[in-house]
Specification:
The protein is 81% helix and 0% strand. With 135 residues, it is mostly helical.
Length: 135
């Protein structure tokens, strides 16, 4: 197996989309206040550690986009509906299942899972769309 060619512009667009969705998803207009309460994190502490968290999220988003690109091409999911299906199955099998386990062990509410898993689902579906359509 060899790595497939990478469209770096598509990777960049996928990563940027992750940050745009994250900025809206975890904003006061949507879920940040509920998330902070359920996570047990004070707003001031969250804000003080935000730069480090954003760097970690950047690295994770780059890795996700690169690996998702490889899986989409290697699975033959180069058309839009197939790309979305493969992306959804990857989210379900690897992201949602891991987040669900962590929420149950940490005894967090289902809403906490829904906020975090929903964010990752939206991000991955947008990434999958970008990477499938922008070849």
């Amino acid at each position: 197996m060899e790595f497939v060619a990478i469209n770096w512009w598509a990777i960049l667009a996928a990563v940027v989309s992750s940050f745009i969705v994250g900025g809206v998803w975890y904003s006061p207009a949507l879920f940040i206040n509920q998330w902070l309460e359920m996570a047990g994190v004070e707003k001031a502490k969250f804000n003080s550690r935000l730069p480090r968290a954003l760097i970690g999220d950047l690295i994770a988003s780059i890795a996700m986009a690169l690996i998702l690109n490889q899986v989409l091409v290697l699975s033959g999911a180069v058309e839009f509906p197939n790309g979305l299906l493969v992306t959804f199955l990857l989210w379900l099998g690897f992201v949602a299942s891991v987040l669900l386990s962590s929420v149950t062990y940490e005894q967090k509410p289902v809403r906490y899972f829904a906020i975090n898993a929903g964010y990752r689902l939206v991000v991955m579906m947008i990434m999958g769309t970008v990477l499938t359509l922008w070849r």
